[in-house]
Design goal:
By secondary structure, the chain is mainly alpha-helical. The chain contains 10 helices and 5 strands; from the N terminus they run H-E-H-H-E-E-H-H-H-H-H-H-E-E-H.
Length: about 250
Amino acid sequence: MAKVRSPSYPSLSLKEAIEKVSNIFAQNYQSPIPRGVAATLMGYGGLNGKSLGVLAALSKYGLLEGRGDETRVSDLAVRIIAHEEGMPERAEAIREAASRPELFREIDARFNEGKASDAAIRAYLITQKFIPSAADSVIRTYRETKSLLRTESEVHLAPIAPLTPERSQAFVNEWLGREKNKSETPAPSDQTNHLDDDEPYEVSISGSFRSGKLISGRFSFRDQESVDELINVLTAMKIQLPLRVSDKE
């Protein structure tokens, strides 16, 4: 009797696949290598049933690419490995990798991004010629991949924590103190008066609230991190202001 085989699917979750491809990249970067070498770099003795399944899973996520016996770490994998958790580039790359397996896209389309019970998905997979044990494995890798995707997206899109008036005032005071120290620092003796291509952008903030609190300072920024800091300062100031000031006031 012929052995029953289930349709092709990733045998690893995306999180597990990223860990495996990271081992290859750490030792070989993106140089093309035989698949047997890739298996040993991931900790296997060579090509066997287990390592072949892992290599296939990495390819399904788009983390490995190549033809025939030659493979290499993909640019998509490098975008994940190179960026730290919480960075938008990493979140976007993980989102792309999670959508690469055809079976996962099929489940997403049929069950509204997996919003269904495991029993419902399992029943569907069995009707698609998956044996029960393979269907259970698919559900595990699919759920874990979705969990990673949610985690990365939440880190990237996490809103600024709600600010109380006390916390916002403390935040603004801290920023003003840094700006005051900057303004009191003597300029280098060879400083010129003209602007060149490396001069930062500057934003001046001044004014007073009705409570009599004066807010003033000059903010210099030349990169995205300093722009994010300015946004945080404005967010902290916002909570101390009324929702709207009418024209009659």
